[in-house]
């Protein structure tokens, strides 16, 4: 039986473990956090990713966690509503697309693998030493262990990618903006409603999903000249406060609430671009390999599809990782490139550069419900996302081994 170590218990890691276990592999998942991660932001599951969820038999569990968002209101500095959109249109969703909190999706996947996958929390990979037919893995806490394969599913700043492929600077493509997300008290949000305040170069949103006690705050802004610099949370919070100093609406209160947020996150909006996603017995999946950035709206979907394609390719390869990894990259790369292309286009509508652009956008939003051909216009807006989300023909599942 092939022993596979997966670094990261977010979305791609547990999804990969689910499929590997089905195909007769023995996966172990190591996660730096002490427990499955909560928090995060809204993510969409659409197109091919929804087909993967169906093949896992998890659609009903996923749908039970749908955010239930109804409306998005654009407001001015005084909180007055300037324009309103249907939440489905605001998120570019059509048909059966599902919107779910990233933490809820991770918990569904972890629960689906809890009985037959080994999870090691509060630990991380510290070193990789390839050997004949495998990898010796050093951990930050646990004793050294040997695995046949190691898969990095550990996000934008992947440790596995750094150890196996070198410093991340050459692999990241910054898109010129930063994002911050964190929980805030529910009083800041309206039930199943998104509130957006947009000024030149900066956007702030607050939303509270169905049944949620807390709300989520989302900040988007042009990257500071010096980047985010320090990874220290206090320094990052100071950077965010400086970027939004003097803003109206609820911004001062949100920045004050930020100090107590247990899940504060700030980073550049970046993509991972790599010529190869494997090196010997080590490979990457999800954001670690091809993060499309939050601006694409497709990170979770790429992680789900990538996990399925990678596991199926390894199973079809009959134990030859070189063949499996090559097939995985061949199938996934056009899909990844199609979805990464969404990010630049989406960012242009998420963070506007001038007051004139903001006024024009709000005018169009106010007029849209009354324009002839409204449905055709909406379909054209959603078409690039729909096309990218379906830009892959999924392989048939590999046969499960006898007794699995």
UniProtKB/TrEMBL annotation:
The UniProt entry, under Pfam families, shows: FAD_binding_3
Check the record and name the InterPro entries matching this protein: FAD-bd (IPR002938), FAD/NAD-bd_sf (IPR036188), FAD_aromatic-hydroxylase (IPR051704)
Query: Domain FAD-binding, which positions?
Result: 2-338
**Matching SUPFAM superfamilies:** FAD/NAD(P)-binding domain
Domain of life of the organism encoding this protein: Bacteria
Record-given protein name: 2-polyprenyl-6-methoxyphenol hydroxylase-like FAD-dependent oxidoreductase
Q: Which organism is it from?
A: Micromonospora purpureochromogenes
């Amino acid at each position: 039986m092939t022993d596979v170590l997966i670094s990261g218990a977010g979305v791609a890691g547990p999804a990969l473990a689910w499929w590997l276990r089905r195909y007769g592999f023995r996966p172990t998942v190591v996660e730096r956090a002490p427990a499955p991660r909560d928090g995060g932001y809204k993510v969409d599951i659409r197109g091919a990713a929804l087909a993967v969820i169906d093949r896992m038999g998890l659609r009903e569990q996923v749908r039970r966690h749908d955010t239930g968002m109804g409306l998005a209101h654009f407001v001015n500095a005084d909180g007055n509503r300037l324009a309103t959109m249907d939440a489905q249109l605001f998120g570019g969703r059509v048909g059966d697309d599902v919107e779910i909190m990233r933490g809820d999706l991770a918990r569904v996947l972890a629960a689906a693998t809890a009985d037959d996958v080994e999870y090691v929390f509060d630990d991380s990979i510290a070193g990789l030493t390839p050997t004949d037919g495998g990898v010796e893995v050093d951990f930050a806490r646990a004793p050294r262990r040997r695995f046949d394969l190691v898969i990095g599913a550990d996000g934008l700043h992947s440790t596995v990618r750094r150890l196996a492929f070198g410093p991340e600077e050459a692999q990241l493509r910054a898109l010129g903006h930063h994002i911050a997300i964190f929980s805030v008290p529910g009083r800041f949000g309206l039930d199943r409603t998104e509130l957006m305040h947009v000024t030149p170069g900066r956007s702030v949103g607050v939303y509270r999903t169905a049944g949620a006690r807390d709300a989520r705050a989302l900040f988007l802004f042009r990257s500071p000249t010096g980047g985010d610099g320090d990874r220290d949370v206090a320094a990052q919070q100071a950077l965010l406060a400086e970027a939004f100093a003097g803003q109206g609406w609820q911004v001062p209160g949100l920045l004050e609430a930020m100090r107590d947020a247990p899940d504060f996150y700030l980073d550049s909006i970046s993509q991972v671009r790599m010529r190869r996603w494997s090196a010997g017995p080590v490979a990457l999946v999800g954001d670690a390999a091809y993060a499309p950035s939050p601006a694409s709206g497709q990170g979770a979907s790429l992680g789900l599809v990538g996990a399925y394609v990678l596991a199926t390719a390894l199973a079809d390869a009959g134990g030859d990782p070189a063949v499996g990894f090559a097939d995985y990259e061949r199938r996934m790369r056009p899909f990844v490139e199609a979805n990464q292309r969404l990010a630049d286009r989406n960012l242009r509508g998420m963070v506007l550069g001038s007051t004139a652009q903001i006024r024009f956008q709000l005018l169009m939003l106010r007029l849209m419900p009354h324009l002839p051909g409204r449905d055709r216009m909406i379909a054209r807006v959603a078409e690039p996302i729909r096309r990218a989300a379906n830009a892959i023909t999924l392989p048939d599942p590999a046969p499960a081994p006898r007794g699995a």
